[in-house]
Each structure stands twice: as structure tokens, then as C-alpha cells.
From TrEMBL:
Chain positions with N6-carboxylysine modification: K154
Protein name (Swiss-Prot/TrEMBL): D-hydantoinase
Organism: Roseinatronobacter bogoriensis subsp. barguzinensis
Region forming the signal peptide: none
Alphabetical GO biological process terms: amino acid metabolic process
Similarity comment text for this entry: Belongs to the metallo-dependent hydrolases superfamily. Hydantoinase/dihydropyrimidinase family. Belongs to the asparaginase 1 family.
Essential cofactor(s): Zn(2+)
Record: active site: T12
Domain Amidohydrolase-related, residue spans: 52-443
One Pfam family hit: Amidohydro_1
SUPFAM superfamilies named in the record: Composite domain of metallo-dependent hydrolases, Metallo-dependent hydrolases
Length: 462
């Protein structure tokens, strides 16, 4: 009797807690059997012997088609970003809807939905960005949005046009607590950064490397301490995103010791890049401009330690793609060779998991279960998608990435699928890559070849 649509056979299956040899049976988009000798019951058999069978990745920190204050357009739309995500082993991504000043949240959301709907290769769920917490927004619009399933939002302590001051942070946290919404905080001290930018401009230090020297560790450490303290005062859990260094990690550890509930995230750029990359010849350093900036090797080691010992819950890309060679790109920002106009952010949704797999699992820094937790399970738990997403279990969506742990890949932007024109990881030699990816039981990529249709990805209300 054939009652399974697909059986994945002979692979080593891993979840956030266990590793086992078994076949996976799939029907109606769900995992319906974990067992042995399932091939005989299935219409389509995927042989995974010698491979790892893992939950599809969830990247909960991705920027797509977000307007920037300076009118610069991001290099990805939902089609290219989700295609790139899919080839990197992801089955769900969580981009942000940025509310522009003066625009209603409802309008913002409907605009993002019209950009995303029917144009995705992965499932998608949105966070909001709150940059203008007026009484009307906090009192009416945000509660309505949370009620409609937009249950998480990011706030910024930096960037001219996005930052909230402490009073605004407190008011926003307070509303989030009442609504049970999840708050993500970008921690950098904007006044300190502005002070340093002015000093650098006065000294005519305008090259990309000044981006890193005007956003020092102390600015992130101080803001992390403040965010954790303000959250403690309001008594809400917080997510501290894109943590880049050991001192900020220490602030999180101290906050937890005092009893605060803190979820912590780091990203590939803090593992394999350093501030020295911003010193590249000509203007090449602009390719590595993101905030917080990459730090030094001691901070890389601190981030690895945090990934291994459980200090970090989430490993996200912070994919935020801009072209390098384009009139509005990183090479010639607004026609001015000044670091402060270089758009902030780097592409990385496709390379996120291969970097952690190769540098982490294959080099013995973290084990396979930790890899699954950091790249999938904990994202689903943090943002309310678990157990439908983020694990391999009976009843969960059949979102599965089959990894060849020995496939050697040298990162070349030409082989990636995003809309940028470079990769900050160009030339990085990696071992291990996802070769076959299923989304809700549909084979999207088979042996590294696309079988998906645009629009196979769905929106996930939470
Ligand atoms: O430089 C970065 N990370 N740009 C994206 C926006 C953000 O702060 O996450
Ligand atoms: Zn049978
Ligand atoms: Zn940020
Ligand atoms: Zn970000």
C-alpha cells in the first residue's frame, strides 16, 4: 500500500535534542511517520544515505525591500531573497515591515503583503519595526496589529531616523508587555556614535573603516546594558539582536543572573569577519559595512563560546543587501565618498547556515543538535511557530533540508541567488551544504536544482 507521498530514507536525522537514524514519511505537507523501511509505502523516495536530514532553517532576522532614509533601494525583493534563502537551506524567513513616519501600521502591512504575497519561495512571517511610538500607535494601531498576528517587533537605539530615546523605549516596552508581544532591540548608543562621526569628519577620516571606529564596542555594550535594564524595569523579556562582542555578551549574562529573561542572537559576520575587512583597498571595505560592525578575533572567539555554551539562542543572518557597484550602492553613496552615507547592511541569507555548519559543526566548535537549535528550533520557539515549524516530529510541517556534510563549496557570489552584486564571504572555503530542500512536503530543491515555483511560499500568521 502506498500511503506516503514522500519517504526520505537512510539519513541521519537531527533535532535540537537528538540524532537518530530513521526514515521520514510525508503526507499532506506534514511529517506523518518516523520509522524504518518506509520506502515501500511512498510514491517518491529520496535517498539520504550519508547525509544529514535537518529541519529547514528559519532565519528570523532578514531585511527585504525596506525603504532607507536616504532613498536607497535594497538589492532584494521577496522573490530573490526567498530564492537565496531556499538555496541556503531555509524554509521560513522573518523579514521586517518598517513603518514610515506618518504612515499607518495597517497601510505599512498591506504594502509589505503586496510585495510578498505570491512572490516567495519560502514561508514568511513578518516582524514590525516601530520607529514612531506615538500614543495613537501604542494605544490603537499596535494592539490591533498584534491581535492580527504580528506579534513581534524591533526597536532601534541607533540610526537618525529610527532610534527611540529611553522614554520611548519604556513606553513601547510597557505596551508590549500588556500585549504579550516579543520585542527585539538593536543596541548601540546613537549619541556616542554621532559624537564620533563628527570627530571623524572633522579629521577628514572618511573611509569605510571609520564606520567601525565610530561604532565601538563600548557603544554597543552601553546600549545593551541600558536595554536590559529598561526591560528589567518594565519587567518584560527582550531579544537582543546581532550581538557582536564579548562585552555585550557579558551584559546579557549579568542580566540573566539578575533574573531577566533575555534571548540573544548573533550572526555570521561576527564569526568570520573583522573590522580589518573594512580597511580594504579602494572602497572595497564598504562591502563589510553593517551595524554593529565586525570586531576582532577575541570577539569572534567570545561569540563562538556563546554559541557553544548556550548564551546565544539564535543565529540569524541580518541579511540586508545593497549593491556595491550601483549609483545608489555602497561604492559611491549619494556621490559622496564618506563612510556615513554607505548603506548599512550586508547580504548573507544563503550563506548563514553553511558558514555555521562548516566553521561550527565540521570544525568541532558546536555539535549538530546545537546547530539545529541555533538555526531553526529556537527561532520557531522564540517567535511562536513551534512545533509547526523548526523541528522534525510527527505532525510538524515537512520543512526539511538534506545536507551533504562533505560537499566542498568555495563561496562565489556568482553561484548565490540574492540580488546583490557581491558576497562579503567571497572566497571562503566551506564544507557542508544543503542539497535537497522540502517545504511543507514539496520538493523545492532536489540535488541543488530548483523544482519550486514562485509562490510556493506562504504567509504564516502567528
Ligand atoms: O547594518 C545592518 N545591520 N543593517 C540592517 C539593519 C539592522 O540594524 O539590523
Ligand atoms: Zn504498506
Ligand atoms: Zn539592527
Ligand atoms: Zn537587522
Amino acid at each position: 500500500m502506498t500511503n506516503l507521498e514522500i519517504a526520505i530514507t537512510g539519513g541521519t536525522v537531527a533535532t535540537a535534542s537528538d540524532t537518530f537514524q530513521c526514515d521520514i514519511g510525508i503526507r499532506d505537507g506534514k511529517i506523518v511517520a518516523l520509522g524504518h523501511d518506509l520506502a515501500q509505502h511512498a510514491a517518491d523516495v529520496i535517498d539520504a544515505s550519508g547525509k544529514f536530514v535537518l529541519p529547514g532553517g528559519i532565519d528570523s532576522h532578514v531585511h527585504i525591500a525596506q525603504p532607507s532614509g536616504e532613498g536607497i533601494v535594497m538589492a532584494d525583493d521577496f522573490e530573490s531573497a526567498t530564492l537565496s534563502a531556499l538555496f541556503g537551506g531555509n524554509t521560513t524567513i522573518m523579514p521586517f515591515c518598517l513603518q514610515e513616519r506618518g504612515q499607518s501600521l495597517r497601510k505599512t502591512l498591506s504594502e509589505y503583503h503586496s510585495l510578498a504575497d505570491h512572490k516567495c519561495y519560502t514561508d514568511v512571517s513578518f516582524h514590525l519595526i516601530i520607529c514612531d511610538p506615538t500614543p495613537e500607535l501604542l494605544g490603537q494601531e499596535l494592539p490591533a496589529a498584534v491581535h492580527d498576528g504580528y506579534k513581534s517587533f524591533k526597536v532601534f537605539m541607533t540610526y537618525d531616523n529610527l532610534r527611540l530615546n529611553d522614554a520611548e523605549l519604556l513606553a513601547t516596552f510597557d505596551v508590549a508587555r500588556d500585549l504579550g508581544a516579543t520585542v527585539m532591540v538593536h543596541c548601540e548608543n546613537e549619541d556616542a556614535i554621532r559624537f564620533l562621526i563628527e570627530k571623524h569628519e572633522a579629521a577628514n577620516k572618511l573611509r569605510p573603516s571609520s564606520h567601525a571606529s565610530t561604532r565601538p564596542v563600548a557603544a554597543e555594550r552601553e546600549a545593551t546594558h541600558r536595554a536590559v535594564s529598561l526591560a528589567e524595569i518594565v519587567d518584560i523579556p527582550v531579544v537582543i539582536v546581532h550581538v557582536s562582542n564579548g562585552q555585550a555578551i557579558d551584559e546579557i549574562t549579568q542580566g540573566r543572573k539578575r533574573g531577566s529573561s533575555i534571548t540573544a542572537e548573533t550572526c555570521p559576520q561576527y564569526l568570520v569577519l573583522t573590522s580589518a575587512d573594512l580597511e580594504g583597498m579602494d572602497w572595497e571595505g564598504a562591502k563589510f559595512v553593517c551595524s554593529p560592525p565586525p570586531r576582532d578575533t577575541a570577539d569572534q572567539i567570545a561569540c563562538w563560546r556563546g554559541l557553544k555554551d548556550g548564551t546565544f539562542d539564535l543565529f540569524s543572518s541580518d541579511h540586508c543587501p545593497f549593491k556595491y557597484n550601483s549609483p545608489d550602492g555602497k561604492l559611491n553613496p549619494r556621490g559622496a565618498k564618506n563612510f556615513r552615507h554607505i548603506p548599512n547592511g550586508i547580504p548573507g541569507v544563503e550563506t548563514r547556515m553553511p558558514i555555521l555548519f562548516s566553521e561550527g559543526v565540521n570544525k568541532g566548535r558546536i555539535d549538530l543538535n546545537r546547530f539545529v537549535a541555533l538555526t531553526a528550533t529556537n527561532h520557531a520557539r522564540t517567535y511562536g511557530l513551534y512545533p509547526r515549524k523548526g523541528t522534525i516530529a510527527i505532525g510538524s510541517d515537512a520543512d526539511i533540508a538534506i545536507w551533504d556534510p562533505d560537499l566542498e563549496v568555495t563561496v562565489r557570489h556568482a553561484d548565490l541567488h540574492d540580488g546583490a552584486d557581491y558576497s562579503p564571504y567571497e572566497g571562503l572555503e566551506l564544507r557542508g551544504w544543503p542539497v535537497t530542500v522540502l517545504l511543507r512536503g514539496k520538493v523545492m530543491i532536489r540535488d541543488r536544482k530548483l523544482e519550486a515555483q514562485l509562490g510556493d511560499g506562504q504567509y504564516l500568521p502567528r
